[in-house]
Write a structure and sequence with these properties.
alpha+beta
């Protein structure tokens, strides 16, 4: 997807300062936190990009599953819980968005077609990463379930594939991760062991 999809809802820990104050202006593009009431505009941007660049690879089941996740009501609910959303504003319109889950996973990242190759996706990720790193205990890595289309973009940011392509409920994605400076180097076998350990920790026995 420009890019990934997953849902686990737990309360977000408090940040060092009000995130609504965090913004960045670069090359006539304003990067800022999404505002209440912008869910429809953000979702429309996501839908346009998804339909052109990602949907052709998906089955009908996968498209339906994606839009169960990427719609204004669901976006609003997640934003009030364990997710945060940043947008890029250009010419008075929303030109890009990124949604982060639990301070460690990119749920979605989309940029309007007219603004591709202008550094907006990278700018959104950079600001999101600044917030993630501002946590008292930042994660060792940031993960994403990339679409086929977005893999080169994430590789340019330093992400590496952590397993082969997967299809879940028709949603095609490639698991990827970026090790943060405070974390360890992520090799595929290390990440597989981490996933096994996480499953053991959640096991009832």
């Amino acid at each position: 997807m420009d890019k990934g999809i997953s849902t686990v809802l737990t309360p977000t820990p408090p940040t060092p300062r009000d995130f609504r104050e965090i913004s960045m202006n670069e090359h006539d593009v304003l990067y800022r936190a999404a505002r209440p009431g912008e869910e429809t505009a953000v979702s429309n941007l996501v839908a346009r990009s998804f339909n052109e660049f990602i949907a052709p690879d998906f089955s009908e089941e996968g498209i339906d599953e994606f839009f169960k996740y990427a719609n204004p009501r669901s976006l609003k609910k997640r934003s009030e819980d364990s997710h945060f959303v940043l947008v890029a504003e250009a010419g008075g319109e929303i030109a890009g968005m990124i949604e982060i889950r639990e301070m460690k996973h990119i749920s979605m990242l989309f940029v309007d077609k007219s603004r591709h190759r202008k550094g907006i996706g990278k700018g959104l990720f950079r600001l999101a990463l600044d917030r993630i790193k501002s946590e008292e205990s930042p994660p060792e890595s940031v993960t994403v379930h990339s679409s086929r289309f977005a893999v080169p973009f994430y590789e340019n940011l330093g992400f590496v594939r952590t397993s082969e392509e997967k299809i879940i409920y028709g949603v095609i994605h490639i698991p990827m991760a970026l090790a943060l400076p405070e974390g360890k180097i992520l090799r595929r076998e290390d990440f597989a062991r981490q996933e096994i350990d996480d499953r053991r920790d959640k096991s009832p026995v």
